[in-house]
Design goal:
By secondary structure, the chain is an alpha+beta fold. The protein is built from ten helices and 14 strands.
Length: 471
């Protein structure tokens, strides 16, 4: 099973990039929010530490001496359940006061001059604490007050924020994918309509134009440019069709005169065998060119819609049997055997137009089949469809040619086709005939195994404009 990459389509590419942009924006926002939250939490902690310093200075002021708290003072400065870590140092580095929590949990001594800016340090057991030192005076004596507090609350809140972002990221990514898909789908809806309309355009339907919902946006400008190109193509095709029809019509008269003159010269020629052979070759070439012009004129009329298709109840088996009888002479020249197996019954068809398709397939089977080989013609069907198959034992057709077989003047082997008298228009006529009935024609073949051409027609009439062959 083949899986296409999401980037193989414009819709998938836009959704992927939209998702990447949104997830990246979320990541950047989360990073900025994380840093900002950490700064806010640290600022709040620093403010609390500053308030602790001012509180401690106020509590110690009544009992302070240059040597610290008066020794005769028996009442504790701090309550026994006070959990704050506090110290007072002299400018020369002597410890003058320490809270019970600070005494039980010492940290490195003062290093360097105190700074009003708080810092984070690691203490025992990798505990992260916030330390703030401020210079001040207690009872007129210069001191350095040092307080600290654990950053556990900051770490806890940052971890909760990180966890919340981790849970939100997949949700945001999912919303981005779904929302992006629907947004891109809605945005590209005019492109879908453009593609649907473009798929309806073919060489036979160049009068179709692409819808222009908004002539000022990019899609509308593309549609207008394509419509202008289609108009030019339609005009070119119409001129070519008129030229083909006019040329085919105008060349019929001189060809008829050339053939008549050749036949008269051949009748009047007596005994000059080289001259008779040359005249006979000229007549044969003129007849082949005349047949080619007939086919080109018929295709030109079909392109212009000038050939009516009159569907009526037709015995498909009898029609095919009649075509086979007409081709018996050609098959006998190569000692080939035409084998008929028909059980299709009645279907709605134009017998004249359908006969063209069957006759062309049978002529090709005889032309390319080897001598003394069988040519099988089958017709069968069900309630809805009728299928006609013509199978030969010829050299077969490589798969790369199948898509082009029904194009005008296409030849699998140009040299061989000319030698056998082919014009390259027979299968184009076959396709027009079949599609005029609302059917399809295809081929099953490979090199060295013969070819089977299959026509599938609806048994009942189909309301459908006959599509013309490629020009």
């Amino acid at each position: 099973m083949n899986f296409s990459s999401p980037l193989s389509t414009l819709r998938g590419t836009l959704v992927v990039w939209l998702t990447i942009v949104l997830v990246t924006a979320l990541a950047l926002y989360s990073g900025v929010a994380y840093v900002s939250l950490r700064q806010v939490l640290r600022h709040e902690l620093d403010e609390r530490l500053h308030n602790d310093i001012e509180t401690l200075e106020g509590l110690l002021r009544p009992f302070w001496t240059p040597a610290g708290v008066r020794a005769s003072h028996s009442q504790p400065v701090l309550d026994e359940d006070d959990y704050r870590w506090m110290q007072v140092w002299s400018p020369d580095g002597r410890l003058l006061f320490s809270s019970s929590v600070a005494a039980a949990n010492p940290v490195p001594a003062l290093v360097g001059a105190p700074s009003d800016k708080a810092v984070s340090i690691d203490v025992e057991n990798n505990v992260r604490v916030r330390v703030k030192e401020e210079s001040g005076r207690i009872a007129g004596h210069p001191v350095i007050v040092r307080v600290l507090a654990s950053e556990d609350r900051i770490a806890q809140e940052l971890w909760e924020f990180f966890w919340l972002i981790g849970l939100a990221a997949p949700l945001v990514a999912g919303v981005a994918v779904l929302g992006g898909y629907h947004l891109v789908r809605r945005t590209l809806r005019p492109v879908d309509r453009l593609v649907a309309a473009a798929n309806q355009i073919s060489a036979e339907r160049l009068n179709v134009r692409l819808p222009v919902a908004n002539p000022d946006d990019e899609v509308g400008q593309i549609a207008q440019a394509l419509n202008a190109t289609l108009a030019k193509l339609e005009d070119s095709f119409e001129r070519m069709r008129r030229f083909t029809a006019n040329a085919s019509h105008e060349l019929r008269t001189p060809l008829t005169a050339l053939r008549s003159t050749g036949q008269a010269a051949l009748t009047a020629s007596r005994g000059d065998e080289p001259s008779r052979e040359a005249i006979a070759d000229m007549i044969e070439d003129a007849e082949q060119l005349s047949r080619l012009l007939d086919v080109m004129l018929l295709l030109a009329q079909a392109d212009a819609g000038a050939i009516p298709v009159d569907r009526r109840s037709v015995d498909i088996d009898a029609l095919i049997a009649d075509v086979v009888r007409e081709c018996e002479v050609l098959a006998q020249e190569k000692s080939q055997h035409l084998r008929l197996d028909c059980s299709a019954g009645i279907a709605a068809a134009d017998p004249t137009v359908l006969r063209i398709a069957v006759a062309n397939l049978l002529h090709n089977a005889i032309r390319y089949g080897p001598p003394s080989s069988p040519v099988d013609v089958r017709a069968f069907g069900d309630v809805a469809c009728v299928t006609i198959e013509v199978r030969d034992s010829g050299p077969g057709i490589a798969p790369e040619h199948h898509a082009h077989l029904f194009e005008r003047f296409y030849r699998v082997d140009p040299g061989r086709s000319r030698a056998l008298g082919g014009t390259g228009l027979g299968l184009a006529m076959t396709r027009w005939s079949v599609e005029a009935h609302g059917g399809v024609v295809d081929v099953v073949s490979s090199e060295g195994s013969g070819s089977t051409f299959r026509i599938v027609l609806p048994r009942s009439p189909v309301v459908r404009n006959p599509e013309r062959s490629d020009s």
